[in-house]
Amino acid sequence: MKKLQGIAVSPGVAIGEALVMDTEGFRIPRRFVARDAVEEELERLHRAIDSAGAEIARNQQAVAFELGEQYAAIFEAHLRMLEGAKLRGELEEMIRDRHYSPEYAVSRTFRRYAELFEKLQAETFASKANDIRDIEKRLLRNLLGRRREGLSKLTSPVVVLAHNLTPSETANLNREFVRGFVTETGGPGSHTAVVAGALEIPAVLGTGPFLNEVSGGDLVIIDGDEGLVILHPDEETIARYQHEAEELRSLAIQLEELRDLPAETADGQRVVLLGNIEFPYEVDHCVARGADGVGLYRTEFLYLEAETEPDEEVHFEAYCRVVKAMQGKPVTIRTFDLGADKVPHLPEPEDERNPFLGLRSIRLALRNVPMFRRQLRAALRASAFGNLRIMFPLVSTLLELRQAKMVLADVVEDLEERKIEFDRNVAVGMMVEVPSACMMIEQFVGEVDFLSIGTNDLIQYTLAVDRSNKDVVGLYNAADPSVLRLIDMVLRAANQRSVPVNLCGQMSSNPLYTMLLLGLGLRRFSVTPSAIPEIKKVCRTVTIADCEEVTRRVMLMENARDIKNFLKGELKKRVPEIAP
Ligand code: PEP
Ligand code: MG
């Protein structure tokens, strides 16, 4: 049994067979071959060894010619190993006697060799392990070739283990069979984490390297609450986690009873609980949990799922579906927030060294006005079918907001001229997720109908910490006093002017922060739909006076660790069943 600590990004427990994606996205299932297919599979192995050998020999010749014989020697060693009788014998034995598929035999054998060299520790041997992986990859490429299967073609439940998954790869995971996933890289605020929440499956990111230690088909436990991954669990651990999964199910059933009750504090203060969605199907999750509306629809996923830019009709249909399903409750369409870790099929900027500080989000929209207009037109047309609001992301200056509003006004005029129906009173708001917007909040509140605080980015830009980098996860903290002060500034300014203000970063989905945010004056939370019952439970248990006292004490504290510990204690006192 081996335990790995990663970053918990989506709660719950998953116990299942591993599906391993290596760094090149190869899927190596544990597969067996039928007795009468053994000879054919051995043939396939031999052909793969021969073509891998031919590739290495070609490389050897090219390098010898370009750089000299001494540099080509490395390929000579690769060839010797690949064509050696020992390796061939071992692989054949696995296929003939154990009926392993050639892919599985290759992955198991090479993993064992690599581990052996890694254990020897000396640097020369460690680099040998890399050589071995190189040969393995070459062989797998030859074996799998075009048969490389997509993650979408699954037929039985698995937990996916990968080096990295982009937000769009995550979005395309098969929702029927993928029970959870783990990646070696990735940070707490990454959009891969956000999508895990949308899929409602346990997920752990940023464990560091471990893929060499598992094979497809091994049993793995994912503890999405603690950020733990357990490889080869023993009987006792499996039983403990099965019990925990059972308890989580019964807590969920208990919380379901709150569905039709309002999110209201014990002293009668109404709180608005909205859902964050990435895909139209999630509107059903919102309805099922009794959400008061959709507080954030991350429309950029329409672009990430498609090969080419979605046309106006694709947008229109998606927005109509959501707006109609919410039956008059508000739906906030956030215009596309592409760039940084969400890259569609747009021409890439040439020199994007700091993608999170680069041509992202509203900046990208203002540079691609025709594309921006197509989306705005679709959103306005959909506004005729329900309660739709439009929100601009990552606004950092007043001029930017005004420019975006001008493009919108232009589209409005166009629709009016063409006598196309839409809601003339559509509310227009902005995300507050850059410190500059907080600093200028007094000016911004005068120019919008509503605000939404995006703490995922606000934490990143306030503390200068990449939200998707596991190596700086210690700094990425919603409880940092600097972040809390900025939220406080925004809430004060908005509440003073009675401009509705929402908080749609991941922070609002964490019950740890509910009392603090209520105490700061927040009354609108937009959360991952699966978090609605828990947040409602906290709201219905506490009083505003209680929350204000918690907040008063928090705002006297100087570091995130003390604040988190204090909040954990306060939550445990009041709602022990959901406290971490
Ligand atoms: C945020 O930044 O908090 C937010 C809600 O937007 P996103 O996570 O999509 O950047
Ligand atoms: Mg953001």
Could you please describe the fold and organization of this structure?
This protein is globular. It is α/β, with parallel strands linked by helices and 580 residues long. An eight-stranded mixed beta sheet has the order 1-8-7-3-4-5-6-2. The longest helix is centred in the first third of the chain and has 30 residues, at 38-67. The protein is built from 22 helices and 16 strands. The model has no long low-confidence stretch (mean pLDDT 91). A hairpin with a 4-residue loop joins β7 and β8 (228-231). It has three domains: 2-19 and 161-250, Glucose Oxidase, domain 1; 35-147, PtsI, HPr-binding domain (Enzyme I, Chain A, domain 2), CATH 1.10.274; 259-578, Phosphoenolpyruvate-binding domains (TIM Barrel, Alpha-Beta Barrel). It has helices spanning 38-67, 69-83, 85-97, 102-119, 123-144, 167-171, 191-199, 235-256, 283-288, 300-304, 312-325, 362-367, 369-382, 398-417, 435-439, 441-445, 455-463, 481-496, 514-520, 532-541, 544-554, 560-574; strands at 2-5, 7-10, 13-21, 158-162, 178-183, 203-205, 219-223, 228-231, 272-277, 294-298, 331-334, 388-392, 427-432, 450-453, 501-503, 524-527. The chain binds phosphoenolpyruvate and magnesium ion. The site of phosphoenolpyruvate has 11 residues, from β10 and α17. The site of phosphoenolpyruvate (PEP) has 11 residues, from β10 and α17.
